[in-house]
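Design review, sub-item: ligand-bound model
Attendees: FS, YL, KQ
YL presented the inputs for the glutamic acid complex:
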Amino acid sequence: MRITRYAALAAAAGLLLAGCASEAGNQAEDAAENTAAVETDVSFDAGTTMARLNEAGAITIGTKFDQPGFGLLNPQTGNPEGFDVEIATLVAAKLGIDAEDITWTETVSANREPFIQNGQVDIVVATYTINDTRKQVVDFAGPYYEAGQDIMVAKGNPDDIAGPDDLAGKTVCSVEGSTPAQNIRTNYPQAQLTTYDVYSKCADDLRNGNVQAVTTDNVILTGLIAGSPDDFELVGETFTKEPYGIGLKLGDTEFRNFINDVLEEAFEDGAWAEAWDKTAGDISGTEAPEPPKVNRY
Ligand code: GLU
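KQ shared the predicted structure:
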């Protein structure tokens, strides 16, 4: 049904453009390339973050660079690709900012809060779990997806790991500053935890036999497995809830509300599902789930 509705929208846009001047035609071409149609006729209240970014015509966005399906750097274009990148591009488009005017900055798990706090990035869209600890220093729009912590093991599961309790006495890798690493430290202290700054290094360690498991969100692991299906497999039992939010400066309620509106509109008009289908959904062969409910705390 969402495909039909999207097709109808596209057809309507095409009809409108058929009668327009060449400038509009050029904009349509840009919009097609950039996926999200850039708003050209928006105005924001003076003094808001939206007005500042719209006037600048540019935004800096933190995302992951090594997570297939969510944020993976394409060395050919120099830009990351994935579901988070698509969602972030949608937000930029609603601010009237072209995809080519987005500066992508790699944010690893541990530097997301400081990068937001010191203004190195305007927003973070990076498999970023909303939680109370983080909400003391940054704010979150969303959630726009709900993942869950899971475990990846070597193909064939040689150590018979069926869940987090089986990690006792075993070596497991995760990333510093992530909720899954914290969960292991707090609730599964018998596991021997190794941490890196990024998950691709954990995957290397599992491949080399340096660790017996990798743990983080199921969808991140699914992306890593998709690239190495002969080496890795997913245990497939999630044991936490990881609602993904868009991080922004603490206290910027207008901006948070604006992003929440963008997300709700994307849930409604099919743009969110389309973003899923072409990225994480394509890699994992899964349909877009029901979108979560935005939490306007
Ligand atoms: N969603 C978890 C977090 O925000 C794990 C994924 C990640 O490290 O980006 O910590």
